[in-house]
Design a protein that fits this description.
The chain has 359 residues and is of the alpha/beta class. It folds into two domains: 6-64, DNA polymerase, domain 1 (Orthogonal Bundle), CATH 1.10.150; 69-358, Aldolase class I (TIM Barrel, Alpha-Beta Barrel). It is 34% helix and 19% strand. The protein is built from 13 helices and 15 strands. The strands form three sheets. An eleven-stranded mixed beta sheet has the order 14-13-12-11-10-9-6-5-4-3-15. Strands 1-2 form a two-stranded parallel ribbon. Helix 1 (13-22) crosses helix 2 (29-38). It starts with 5 loop residues before the first strand and ends with a strand.
Length: 359
Amino acid sequence: MSEKKINLKGKTLKELEEFFESINESKYRAAQVFQWLYQKRIDSFDEMSNLSKALRNNLNKIASIESLELIEVQISQKTDTRKFVFKCEDGSLIESVLIPDQDRLTLCISTQVGCPLDCKFCATGQMGYKRNLSVFEIIDQFIQTSKHSNRLITNIVYMGMGEPFLNYENTLKSLSIFSSDLAFDISAKKITVSTAGIPDKIIDFANQPFKGKLAFSLHSTDEEIRSLIMPINKKYSLKENIEALEYFYKQTRRRITFEYILLKGINDSDKDIQGLVKLSKRIPSKINIIPFNSIAHTNPLGIAAELKPTSREEFDAFVEKLRKNNLTVFVRNTKGSDIAGACGQLATKILRRKSSIKV
C-alpha cells in the first residue's frame, strides 16, 4: 500500500520550510509555495511556474493540494447571504456563511464538526460534537467560498460551528496564515475570534503576536442564568472569564465585543441591563445585541425547545436603555434565517429548496 501524500494546504510558512528542508530543497521554496497556495489559490503543483520541473514532478509524487468538497450553496432570497455546505474527507459535513454588507463581505467559518458546548440557543450545540477541524479544513473554507463570490472577502469571523478555543492550536495556525502578507493579506483588525469562554486560552491568546479581535459569547451577566443556557459556565464561571477578559484588554488594549442574544423572559429585563452597564464599566467593550433565531430545524428538547425571541418592541427598548447608559451598542440584524444560516442556526442540515444550488 502506497504511503499517503502530504497535503501542503493548511501548512504554515514555518511548516513548509521544515518540509522543504526535509526533502533537501532550499528553504526559500517554502515562501514560493506558500504564495501559490494562499495568495494565488492554485489547485496543482504544475501551475507553480517559478519552481523547476524536477521539483514539481517530485512534489506530485510525495505531496498533494487537497480541497474540501462543496456539496451545496444555499442563497437567501432576502439578503443574498450564502451558506456553503462542505464534505470533509471522512464524510463529515461543515458549514460556512458569506454575509454581504454595503462596505464589506464577511465570511463566518467553522472550527469543529459540531460543538461540545451544548449552548441551548445554538443549533450546532444540538447536533453534538465529532472532532476538531484541521488547519487545512479551516483555511479551505475561505479558499472555496472566495471562488464562488464576485466580491472580495474583507472580514473573517470565527463564529461558525464549534468553539475555536477548544481547537486552539489549529485556530492559531489558521490565523497566522490568514493574516500573513504573503497569503490572504487580510488585516488582523478585520478578523474576529469568538469564544464562549475558556479562561486559560483567553489569557494565552492575549500574549500571542496575532493582533485580531476577540468576541465573547456572554448572553447573561448572571452566573445562574448563564449556566442554564450555556452549560460551559458550570466549568468556567463568568467570574473567571471576566478576569481573563480584563487581562486580555490590559495586555492588548483592544476592546472586547460582547455577544448577547435576547431571549424572552430570560435575559431581557432591567436587571440584565444593569448587569451589562456594570460589566461595560469594568471592561472597555462594545455589545452586539442579536435577535434569537429559531433552531426548530434541529428538533431541540428541554429548555432549548422553549426559547423564544424577545418581541421587537421590547428588543428596541432594551437597546435604547443600554445606549442611554452610554454603552456602545450594535444590533446584529438577522441575515440568512430563511436558509438556516443566521447566527446560531448552523447544523449541517442540507435544505433542498429553490434557493439551493447543488454543486
